Amino acid sequence: MICGPDNLAEGIGAVVRHLTIIVAAVALGMATPAFGDSLDQTEELPKLSYALTADKVLKEIDRRGPAPVVWELFDRTERWYDLLRNVAGGDPEWLEVAARLRPASDAAATEELTDAVAEAMTISPERVLEMIGVVFHNNLTSSS
């Protein structure tokens, strides 16, 4: 049977969509410590009071660590979904936010971050693959 250009394009598109999800899931599915191990949950956390930008979130992660930031964002549903939409847009800074929050995220947050990164793969595959390469490189070099 001869495939026409339409059938070929549909088939390639389906393969790319499936590979996108698989690559993102594998890259972000590395084992991490139990969520919240590094955070005293009785501790009062300062609230994020700024407009949500990647730069500001990254500065908060640097200042407070990823666990308190991911907890706070995840607890504030509107802000969490803003973050996920931004990650899904494929901007390099937002992809860095996802990579930095991932080690402190629980199963639900991890799944949503993974989905956002997978969506970003359809928009900006080069950026996502570059991020995944860095994650894998760092993981491989730190375990040897």
Strand tally: 0
Mean pLDDT: 75
Taken as a percent bin, the fraction of beta residues is under 5%
Separate helix tally: 7
| N to C succession of SSEs | HHHHHHH
Q: Which bin fits the share of residues in helices? A: over 70%
Based on secondary structure, the structural category is mainly alpha
Output the radius of gyration. 17 Å
Unreliable parts? 29-46
What's the topology here?
Elements: H1 5-28, H2 54-64, H3 66-75, H4 77-88, H5 92-101, H6 107-123, H7 125-143
Helix pairs in contact: 1-6, 1-7, 2-3, 2-5, 4-5, 4-6, 5-7, 6-7
How would you characterize the overall build of this protein?
There is one protein chain. With 144 residues, the protein is mainly α. It has one domain (5-143). It contains seven helices and no strands. It has helices spanning 5-28, 54-64, 66-75, 77-88, 92-101, 107-123, 125-143. Helix 1 packs parallel to helix 7 and helix 2 crosses helix 3 (66-75). It is globular. The model is unreliable at 29-46 (pLDDT under 50).
How would you summarize this macromolecular structure in one to three sentences?
The chain has 144 residues and is mostly helical.
